[in-house]
Amino acid sequence: MIDAMLGSGLSRPLEGLLADVVRHINASGAPVVSIDFPTGLFCEDNRQNEPKNIIRADYTLSFQLPKLAFMFASNEQYLGSWYLIDIGLHPEAIQAATTRHFYLQASEIRNLYRPRKKFAHKGHFGHAYLMAGSYGKAGAAVLAARAALRTGVGLLTVQIPSAGYGVIQTAVPEAMCVPDEQPHFISEVADLEGYNVIGTGPGLNTHDQTARALKLLIQNTSVPMVLDADALNILADNLTWCGFLPKGSVFTPHPGEFDRLAGKSANEHDRFEKAIELAHRFQVHIVLKGAHTMVVSPDGRCFFNSTGNPGMASGGSGDVLTGMIMGWLAQNYSPLHSCLMAVYLHGRAGDLAANRKGYEGLTAGDIIEQIPKAIKTTLRY
Amino acid sequence: MIDAMLGSGLSRPLEGLLADVVRHINASGAPVVSIDFPTGLFCEDNRQNEPKNIIRADYTLSFQLPKLAFMFASNEQYLGSWYLIDIGLHPEAIQAATTRHFYLQASEIRNLYRPRKKFAHKGHFGHAYLMAGSYGKAGAAVLAARAALRTGVGLLTVQIPSAGYGVIQTAVPEAMCVPDEQPHFISEVADLEGYNVIGTGPGLNTHDQTARALKLLIQNTSVPMVLDADALNILADNLTWCGFLPKGSVFTPHPGEFDRLAGKSANEHDRFEKAIELAHRFQVHIVLKGAHTMVVSPDGRCFFNSTGNPGMASGGSGDVLTGMIMGWLAQNYSPLHSCLMAVYLHGRAGDLAANRKGYEGLTAGDIIEQIPKAIKTTLRY
Amino acid sequence: MIDAMLGSGLSRPLEGLLADVVRHINASGAPVVSIDFPTGLFCEDNRQNEPKNIIRADYTLSFQLPKLAFMFASNEQYLGSWYLIDIGLHPEAIQAATTRHFYLQASEIRNLYRPRKKFAHKGHFGHAYLMAGSYGKAGAAVLAARAALRTGVGLLTVQIPSAGYGVIQTAVPEAMCVPDEQPHFISEVADLEGYNVIGTGPGLNTHDQTARALKLLIQNTSVPMVLDADALNILADNLTWCGFLPKGSVFTPHPGEFDRLAGKSANEHDRFEKAIELAHRFQVHIVLKGAHTMVVSPDGRCFFNSTGNPGMASGGSGDVLTGMIMGWLAQNYSPLHSCLMAVYLHGRAGDLAANRKGYEGLTAGDIIEQIPKAIKTTLRY
Amino acid sequence: MIDAMLGSGLSRPLEGLLADVVRHINASGAPVVSIDFPTGLFCEDNRQNEPKNIIRADYTLSFQLPKLAFMFASNEQYLGSWYLIDIGLHPEAIQAATTRHFYLQASEIRNLYRPRKKFAHKGHFGHAYLMAGSYGKAGAAVLAARAALRTGVGLLTVQIPSAGYGVIQTAVPEAMCVPDEQPHFISEVADLEGYNVIGTGPGLNTHDQTARALKLLIQNTSVPMVLDADALNILADNLTWCGFLPKGSVFTPHPGEFDRLAGKSANEHDRFEKAIELAHRFQVHIVLKGAHTMVVSPDGRCFFNSTGNPGMASGGSGDVLTGMIMGWLAQNYSPLHSCLMAVYLHGRAGDLAANRKGYEGLTAGDIIEQIPKAIKTTLRY
Fold first, then answer.
1. Which of B254, B360, B367, B370 to mutate to test the interface with C (most CBs of C within 10 A)?
2. How many Å apart are CA D257 and CA D74, to the nearest integer?
3. SS3 assignment, position C227
4. pLDDT tens digits for range B198-225
5. Where are the alpha helices (DSSP H) in D86-181?
6. Which value does ipTM take for this structure?
7. How many CB pairs under 8 A join C and D?
8. What tens digit of pLDDT does each residue of D267-303 get?
9. Do A136 and B178 touch (CB under 8 A)?
10. What pTM was estimated for this model as a whole?
11. For residues A98 and A88, what is the distance between their CA atoms, to the nearest angstrom?
């Protein structure tokens, strides 16, 4: 059954006959294809909408660009699988549309790339510092480190609790290591001279001494930081520290971690609005992870990712993303550009890996292995 | 020489002239091909049969479906290599045949699969807990962990004696680890909150403290458990604990381990019957490993596997199977379906590996590497 | 210049005019091709020959089978590169020639192979025990273990000094491990129940306690042993222990190790004769490693290998061979057949590796990786 | 715009009208292609040149051979990307030109290679000794060791601080190891009997005891040494030790390390001249790393490399080069030839790796993996 009843622009839930028709279609059991988008669904905010009066399509064929509502898991029940149809809108017309929501595709990423010069040496590609791991979670440090190396960082130093020393040196010989004096958790801050990006979070725990080290780290550095996982959980308990974060810092929460920072959200649209607000308040970039990972810049722009797949929903996938953001930052890409490139290419690497391994068989290590090909094929050099 | 003397349905050993003919054929030294199955062999139970009055074929060409007797090693001497010939029986006719014995093939596995949804996140694919390893057998934990990850588990935590800490974190960075306070054996039960499947056995030993920890584990969890190797050997010494096993649990014994649980079997048919009885008594699923691995459900149904090869008869192959069952259980497949998918795909991965490495060259690690391709090609997505 | 002056059968050095011609040719600087073999060279024993009266060919084109003299490095200066030309001798004629020297080729190896049966389980393929490694040489244990697994052993247990515990478990998860109570050297003998082959030598040192453990091992086992490297050096200091070696044991010396056992040899032919004598005296199989590795059986037969290349002349290559001999022994091949299969396939795996990596780039690990393909392509199954 | 105004031979900065034209062209914003080389640029030494009076080309098409000025990063602004055009100069004419500056290409490397003989054994390919690593930098030892093995060394022994013991044995099983008695730094010199090349530097630190060990090492060996990284930094503080260096030794500094040895250079041409002077003074070979790595022999000849790419500008790339130089030295190539082969093939391996992984995705480990193919394809055997 083809649903082409109503285009965009709706702002009130359907009522009356039209609502009856929608309910009738939904009850029919017939396969439903919606054109542009399902009748009854609002383009953006569906918090006040009436669920039972919205078409539940199996497929949605939308024009040129996806709508904001397409980005949220809660609307999958209405949209089914959606596809974009190019209706020949002029690129400049698309650019001219004043929007603060962007759908991140290969061409944008390609424009951000700066080719390497022949006489470049490793100093040109930065020195990243990763503070990661704890007893039982040294693997997260391995994954983030490998991802940073595969993204082009010049030099990488990893601070890890000393019980993880052999792990990181065996698994990542290209990285240098600063073992913490504590065997099981991070407890100190090393000399930060010479690093141009600092990442922390993967595999940390929330030990008091780790929290204290994180505080010192925030206070003592002026280069951009990438904060993930338990680094965000520690911050959530110490929001005042956010005022001291160096300019250009990045948070990479999944929804649970985000809610710890920003308070519980009733739904995805609430969380989306809170992310914009939080990015503004703390002047940080927020990478809110999900099927369409969202990058929010401090100025309020939101970028939704178009790559990635459900095979990436497994342990360590987020650590890989953290390493990739660090990798681009180290090479002197701006924080926003680093987030966009990392998010897009992380998903693209996952898609390449899924082509080879399928969804179930895919591990975080497979994503890392595909980063080089993701970069090469996206940037076409 | 073509043996097409007698079809199925026989219930007494051959006698008289016919037995003479059989013995004559067997003594002739000529190659023998049996049609449907070797004259003198019973379809199912051959315990009362007379070995010398059964044709010893080099090849058996059987119709549509194999008979129960084909599943047992002791009948290889009669059957030689057997092959199925499709005689066009209607699938519904096959389904309609009231049987409690099934021959597991790709189409059944394909029907069990639930495709992943786009907005799925790692919480949807479960968090598995593996308690494994001891001093000298940490490798078993590595193999089971890698197999679980390659089967699609969302998150994986491995409890390992502390001397194996560096081993598991270096070899399996995608897994988290809870090191036991003991360096050489498992001695304690961690907080089990948040896990949706628990596996144990690979690489364990039978230390008293390990036995005690296993007992606590059984008592304190309500999610399905997969028990293998020394976990089964400990159970064999403490059969009363079986009454406390959580619903949906799975045993994965090889014949030696099974006999420790169920008492010595005089022959394979005895063991087959005892497996059905034991599965019923303890309300567990039993995966009895062999050339045609048998999955027995608590309701008495038996599923014989059609995949696998003798190259898989090497150390660690069983650990891989344990990890795969855990992987499907974590993703919320039912215990029976998890066993069937894991058993079939484990054999299929082994067959793919044997194509590349042959029988002698094949290691358990090769099976793991082929799990993704086994899944993709069997499920055809 | 074509040298076809004299065929085989010579038993005294050239003299007079013929010797003058040979010296003239050698001094001419022209490229020389010898037919069958270089004039002046004896077929077998050249110890009494006069070097300056032998043709120094660049190439030798020999008929059907190589001569004994071709096997020795010292004759490379006369033979140059040699090639075999099939002149159509009937295989039975070749077989009928009463010789105790054999040139080992693919067809012989293929005849030794016993295909695996469908219902085989890991008990059918044996349980090998490897006592190997010391502080600084744990890698040798890794290489021998991996090679045994790739050759088809059912189960493998490795005894290693405890400082190498993490190394072997991380690098070879398919193997079980019995860590020695000493961290830096082997000092004890484990319970040997259940093993059907014992290998030792790779990476050992010659510590007193290791020597004592080796003595106990020899006294306490009745299954075939494979002895390599420092196990042979210890034996060389304790030749009386050889009387206690279990039946079917194998020595795998390189020339230096062999000379320590048998006394210094003035030349290769001496060493060849001593190997035959030693194999008879101790009733062991001797695998004397070289460009044409020689397998000597206790009954005096010698088999020269036809595979292998100079890229294999690097650290660890011998450890791989030890593991392969153990692998075939574990699967119940006879000691002689195990040696022949291992030697031929080791060289074949090295040739496959050299095709991919060249000579300089080839490492022992590459040989291991090619064992499966070497087996498959040689045995053609 | 085509710049073909002036050929080589200029020795004073442009003035007057010609300088005006150059400035006009540079200001025009048009793409500029220079023929042979940019007008105003001197062929060799541009220290006295006037930057604003030199053409800034986007591309330079040069004839037959590059000029010295092309080798320096500071001239990239004038040259843009440069390409060589073969104008048919006779090779002998090129050879006859009396120059002490050479541009290293595949044909030269091919001429240096000596094919391996069939009967060669591992003694023919040397035994290299690598003293490397410290707490946090064990990975550098892993990379240098793997590179030496992939370059064809017969045997390799690695001295490493004992905390790195498990790292090196797990990651490089083909190498033997002499663990230092200190866990975190090198403190002693092992028995040096039997080694034919000694390398040190990768991953060292500058601990007093390490410096003392280096001093003893220099005093106690007579075989060629390769010195890199902190070994050079220690030497820079102890220049008098250079008088004791064994004949045929090699320094492999990057520009920062070189300046510590030779004093700060104001520009690349200064550094180039100082390298020639230093190589002469200490009678060592200097491998000054950069986009066109320069090999300076004690007799004053300079060889500029033609291979390599900016993807190699990442941690560990230099450790790989050190291992490769050791590898050729061990096989008895002369120090100069070892440097030339290693430098060229290191770059070639990096180029092969970049073809597969791109520039960002390339790691030092990828370079190592491509060494075999680099050797095979360059040497064409």
1. B360
2. 19
3. strand
4. 999 999 999 999 999 999 999 999 999 9
5. 91-96, 106-112, 138-150, 165-171
6. 0.92
7. 120
8. 999 999 999 999 999 999 999 999 999 999 999 999 9
9. yes
10. 0.94
11. 19
